[in-house]
Specification:
By secondary structure, the protein is of the alpha/beta class. It has helices at about 5-15, 30-40, 60-70, 85-95, 110-125, 145-150, 160-170, 190-200, 215-225, 235-250, 255-260, 265-280, 285-290, 310-325, 355-365, 365-375; strands spanning about 20-25, 45-50, 75-85, 100-105, 130-135, 170-175, 205-210, 225-230, 295-305, 330-335, 345-355, 385-390. It has 2 domains: about 5-290, Aldolase class I (TIM Barrel, Alpha-Beta Barrel); about 295-400, Alpha-Beta Plaits. The chain is about 45% helix and about 15% strand. The strands form 2 sheets. Strands 1-2-3-4-5-6-7-8 form an 8-stranded parallel beta barrel, surrounded by 9 helices. Strands 10-11-9-12 form a 4-stranded antiparallel β-sheet. The structure holds 1,3-dihydroxyacetonephosphate. 1,3-dihydroxyacetonephosphate binds near residues 83, 182, 231 and 233.
């Protein structure tokens, strides 16, 4: 249940001057460690999946576990695509369950970044999903981080930030003010004046990439100047790596499970430290009470067919599953046939939308219009349609906010 709208979550953090932690996860151990820490701290948390890590796990396979873990968590959770490359990545992430997406075209020329971000915002907002854009460039400095984020730092300018946010409509902006991905040698020097000016000019939640290695004092200054989300990964990977090396030291012939034992706790400890620094500890109840829940909509049709034989109906269903399943915001398309021969309606479509916004954007989407007008409506005059939301204990009184 505690999946909440990410836009509300970050608005709450921005208004109350704390930063939600967005932790990149690369395995089930990371997932469990992050949520265990968030629950221990009673903190809202963002489960982040970075496209730059997709070589390390199967995104499609991992997402159902991420969603299941988020639903059974005792704290409010959002699921976010980190460093999404383009429109296709954003659609795929939303259809697989992300409730927020980042489009990262920060390595492109300004106009191209604008164009790509605008495209993603139009699609994502039609699905009720908020978007994080990035302006300026946050590089990686060592090892894997340098490979994933090559190049030199480019600072965000206030003027460009204003134009970018106005013209793209992004909900959150990742800024470059001196942080880097990964651990920097020496203490990073952060440009707080620049951050303060960006915050005053924009008034939207700001995001910092490169949380690893920042001091307590730096966390405080970032948050005081509008940062509402801090991305964190390398320190978690390092903690996991140390735990494995320790196990190897103690048990050089150990098998897989004995070597990874301890990873979950190592990740949880580091996440807890970061949550406490960001000030989100103890905020879970407020966020749950004040943020709309993130709930799917079921678009259910029951119908009878005239003028098609069984093979024709099956062909229509196959085509519909493919065409409708590719529409942004469609989580799943299930087709069915009544079990009893005397059922009032013979067939069903159950189309799962990620959000209420998809009721309209799906109806008007060219792929739906074409399929409905040419293939479905001509043979299914006798039908009932309902869009409904699951009624689940504990969320009814929040329903009005969805
Ligand atoms: P670190 O690896 O420096 O913590 O940064 C993570 C990040 O910004 C992911 O987007």
């Amino acid at each position: 249940m505690p999946l909440v709208q990410m836009k509300d979550m970050l608005r709450h953090a921005h208004a109350h001057r704390y930063a939600a932690g967005a932790f990149d996860l690369v395995s089930l151990d990371f997932l469990e460690g992050i949520l265990a820490a968030a629950e221990r701290c009673r903190a809202p948390v963002i489960l982040s999946l970075a496209e730059s890590h997709f070589a390390n796990f199967d995104f499609e396979l991992l997402m159902p576990a991420v969603e299941a873990a988020a639903r059974r968590a005792a704290v409010p959770v959002a699921i976010h695509l980190d460093h999404g490359a383009n429109l296709k990545s954003a659609v795929s992430a939303i259809n697989r369950g992300c409730s927020g997406v980042m489009v990262d075209a920060s390595d492109r020329p300004f106009d191209e970044n604008l164009r790509l971000t605008r495209e993603v915002v139009a699609m994502a907002h039609a699905c009720g999903v908020p978007v994080e854009g990035e302006l300026g460039y946050v590089p990686g400095v060592e090892g894997e981080d340098a490979e994933r984020h090559p190049g030199e730092i480019a600072y965000t300018t206030v003027e460009q930030a204003r134009t970018y946010v106005e013209e793209t409509g992004v909900d959150f902006l990742a800024v470059s003010i001196g942080t880097v991905h990964g651990l920097m040698r020496g203490e990073p020097k952060l440009d707080y004046l620049r951050l303060q000016q960006i915050n005053e000019a924009l008034g939207i939640p700001l995001v910092i990439h490169g949380g690893t290695g920042l001091s307590d004092d730096q966390f405080r200054h970032l948050i005081a100047n509008g940062v509402a989300k801090i991305n964190y990964y390398t320190a978690l990977a390092d903690a996991a790596g140390s735990s494995i090396r320790e196990n190897v030291g103690e048990n050089p012939n150990g098998g897989y499970t004995s070597l990874v034992q301890g990873v979950r706790n190592a990740v949880a400890e580091e996440v807890e430290r970061c949550i406490r620094l960001g000030g989100s500890a103890g905020r879970a109840d407020e966020v749950l009470a004040e943020c709309a829940p993130w709930l799917p909509i079921e678009h259910l049709i029951v119908y009878n067919v005239l003028g098609l034989d069984t093979a024709g109906v099956q062909a229509m269903m196959t085509e519909g599953r493919r065409a409708l399943g590719a529409i942004p915001g469609v989580r799943q398309v299930i087709t069915g046939e009544a079990v009893k021969a005397d059922a009032e309606y013979r067939y069903t479509w159950l189309v799962r939308f990620c959000h209420t916004a998809v009721i309209d954007s799906y109806r008007d989407h060219p792929a739906h219009v074409a399929f409905a007008d040419q293939r479905f409506r001509p043979v299914a005059g006798n039908r009932l349609t309902i869009d409904y939301q699951e009624i689940e204990a504990g969320i009814q009184n929040q329903r009005g906010k969805a």
